Amino acid sequence: MTSAMLVSILMTLIAASTPLLLAALGELVAEKAGVLNLGVEGMMLCGAVAGFAVAFSTGSTGIGLVAAAFAGVAASMIFAVLALSLMANQVATGLALTIFGIGASSLIGAGFVGRTITRLQPVFPAALSEHPILRLVFGHDILVYLSLALVAGVGWFLRRTRPGLILRAVGENDASAHAIGYPVIAIRYAAVAFGGALAGLGGAYFSLALTPMWADRLTAGRGWIALALVVFSAWKPGRLLLGAYLFGAVMTLELQAKAAGVTWLAPEVLAMAPYLATIAVLTMMSLGRKTGRLDAPACLGKPFSAS
Amino acid sequence: MLEWRRRREPSALMLLASPLIAIGLTILIGMIVFTAMGYDGFHAVESIFLTPFLEPQRWGDIGVKGAPLVMIALGLAIGFRANVWNIGAEGQYVMGAIAGTGVALLTYDMTGWWILPAMMLAGILGGMAWAAIPAFLRVKLQVSEILTSLMLTYVAVQFLYFLVRGPWKDPGGFNFPQTRMFTADQTLPTVLEGTLVHLGIPAALALAVIAWLLMEKTTAGYAIKVVGLAPAAARHGGFSAARTTWATMLASGALAGLAGLFEAAGPFGQLTPQFPVGYGFTAIIVAFLGRLNPLGIVFGGIVLAGTYVGGEIAQSTVRLPQAATGLFQATLLFMLLATDVLVRWRIGWKRRVV
Question: Which residues, including other chains, have CB under 8 Å from residue A114's CB and lie 6 or more apart?
Answer without folding.
Answer: A213, A214
